[in-house]
User: What shape does this take?
Amino acid sequence: MNPESARVPEAQLPSDGGKPGHRAWLRRHRGWLVVAVAVAVVLLGIALARPQPVRATPVGRGDVVRAIVLTGRVRPRASPQVGATTTGTVQRVLVREGDRVSGRQLLVQLDDAQARAAVAEARALVASALGQTQSAREQAGTAVRQTARDLERARLLYEAGAMSARDLESAARAAADARSAAAAANARGSAGALAEVERARAVLAAAEAQLANMRITAPAAATVIARLVDPGDVVVPGQPLLELALAGATEIVAFASEDNLADLRVGAGALVSADAYPAERFTAQVTWIAPAVDPTQGTVEVRLGVLDPPAYLMPEMTVSVNIDVASRRNALVVPRGAVRDLGTPAPWVLVERAGRAVRRPIQAGIVGESRVEVVGGLAAGERVLAGSVEPGVRVRVRD
Assistant: This one.
């Protein structure tokens, strides 16, 4: 077969616009093109004429809450570092990270052998000083009692005629001298003995304080965050041994955009969830709002108090905070998804009128997570259209 005879005539093939072959092809298929366009127009008309099924939701009443969602961290009421107040060697460390401790619980024990010996010696000094004071008083009392007995015997002998008046006077002078001497000795000795006793007691108090410093205890109920020493370590005054997080009112610190500053207020309630436990929720309350904006971040520090923190809550844990900034009970509400141009000055919804979707401007109030308060433009019982339907389209409403 001749290859040239198998070629299609050039006039039968479509070609670029303006060529003779292209015009011939258009003349040949013009009828089919007209039919195709007519069919498309008819189908489009049918599609436009057929009502589009849409869902409708009645305008009702309910509670609506607007919240600000922030990310924060848990901060304990205080995080003191427990340190040594004296030089010593660590004998025992009785806690580890994560342990919960009570107030005055023993945490670290330093070697206290020398301190205990000093306490024993000081107690002996106190006993000795008290003994010396008691001995001096007993001697003075003995002398007074003896001279008093001698004087009484001399009087009996004098009355019986067995003693002269001179001897009686001598016995009386001896008794008087003994009382005077005892009084003077007691006066001089009491002051000195008392001072000695007080000095001994002061030494004892210092020794007991030194012994107590060998026991490092918790200042209050807390959780051990960090353990900084081990048995055998030599510590010096001021050296931190443990870091604690005090139990009690836990605080959450978050940073809000300055755009939300007008909505924040002290006393606002919040719902908090830890990122590690997303299914758990607990309540908090805004207790403090920073008086200044961080110029580098454009944020405001917000602190929230947690009166009853859950057991799983740990310091520095990341949490999500939903702060209720506005709420209304029994408000006129529509689903948030039904409101178009929300956040602009002219929000609107679609309603059904005479089988078509009609645009209806509304006045929005509080914008919640799933509901929007309607303060104007709609009445209770009216139905708003949902979905991607556009204004002017024929619709068939289904509840």
In short: The helical segments are 20-49, 113-159, 165-212.
